[in-house]
Predict the structure.
Amino acid sequence: MFSRRQLISGVALTCTAAAIQRPTLGRADYRSTLGPTVTPVANGRTVEVALEAAERPQVFPCFGGRKLPVWTFQEGVPAPVIRLRLGETLVATLRNSLPRPGELVTIHWHGIRLPNAQDGVPYLVQPPVEPGGSYTYRFTPPDTGTYFFHTHCNSVEHFGRGLYGILIVEGDETAPCDHELVLAMKDWRIGDDGNFAPFYTSEGAAKSGTHGTVRSVNSAISPRYTVPSSADVRLRILNVDPTRIAQIGIEGAEAAVVAIDGVPCPPFALDTWRFGPATRLDVIVRTPADGGVATLTDYFSAQPVPLAVLASAGDARRTGGFDPAPLRSSIVPEPDIANATHMNFTFSSTATGASVAELASIDGFDVGSLCLSSQTFWAINKRSWVSKDHRNTGPPLAKLDRGKSYVFELENVTAQSHPIHIHGHTFKVLGSNKRKLPPHHADTVLVGPRERVDVAFVADNPGNWMFHCHILEHQESGMMGYLTVT
Ligand code: C2O
Ligand code: CU
């Protein structure tokens, strides 16, 4: 039996569906390989958290027994999970205890429509936090959903070392699920010497990015979670990898997408979903009967990769058919498409980027041996962001009038995919010239090679907002800019 998703992946797969459904993992159960939920200091409707960026060498299940110098925001496995109820205010104090002299840090709350001053972009909206310094963020997220946070300084390395966390704003469920799991997908780049390998490479930056060597979910390889049987389990799936594009699906169970990038959508059956860096997908799965397994799988490779296994145990929780209730709908303002101003943004490679990509494609050619005078490989509307540390920003890519509706035509003229992210706003995805997309909103839209995706939004949030590719090596080598809303 060949499923549609096997056809979608574009390669004739030789493994059988049965093999996919029951991957031979032979691993111990990881009861909880996700970090602790940040314990809120309840203070009325304020949730206070302390996030200390620091090096905390440790052994993760996916490190094969090695201790690696990860950088994290809290003790324990990376990705502290902050949970708020809608309406609560987050007060997060960031302390920079990173060991490297001069290493700066900020926190960007990815996807949250917050006031510009809390957006965590160095120089553009706040001074970066120097070693030994601290900074307090305070905002009340206007929307429910699955989000994450990360630094906006030296991002390739910071992501590579694990400096990120998860932010969940609760209050969107109209009917409770039986169980919930947060599944954060991220590769780790471990070299032959057992230490981290360079996170940034010129050949990666000029092409699809430098991939990790070990795939993980919640820092474990194909972790196995025990879930209730015949139950509706909510998965909050995040792609927190700096590079990897996956094509995710659930093998062995019915599943429905209920939110994309945190924004609820009408539930639709999950076949597979092209899952770019920085995007999130909320999925409800009807788990198999006692003893059965369902597998979160990446089909974007010749052999499907089992990312995480849900193992059913105990009495059946539900008997009726699978029909997950929609989440509470979002309050993202509806753009006025008929009167919107259209703007084209063309994502291209620079001449240097194109020649490095070409050289990198020659077998045996060592791009590292080139004396590259610049790492400017990508551009938006022919402009490259050259200030990796954001110190010299130059003029905005576009000036938008506050309260007006815009249609952005995101046109990718390159041979690579680019997950395009806007800060402080949420797009309504109107459509693609290449594929059918369900109606949905997003803060990060994957635009494939030579694809054009149109998105619309109301520019209702004043300030300077970054607009960039979320393949972080592309971002750091030029595919970044900002928009000014006044
Ligand atoms: Cu996750 Cu500038 O973004
Ligand atoms: Cu890109």
